[in-house]
Amino acid sequence: MTEVLVWWKGLAKELELDIETLDEQQEDSNRL
Q: How far apart are CA 17 and CA 32, in angstroms?
């Protein structure tokens, strides 16, 4: 169970990074 929590936390961190980069890309395209 602990391994799953560690894996899930790591996955959530990766998703947060992906969301941040998506937001930045959208802002860049809005500037154009």
A: 23
Which amino acid is residue 25, in one-letter code? Q
Q: How far apart are CA 10 and CA 20, in angstroms?
A: 16
Question: What are the Cα distances from residue 19, in Å, to 1, 4, 5, 14, 15?
Answer: 27, 22, 21, 9, 6
pLDDT along the chain (32 residues), means of 10: 90 90 84 72
pTM over 0.70: no
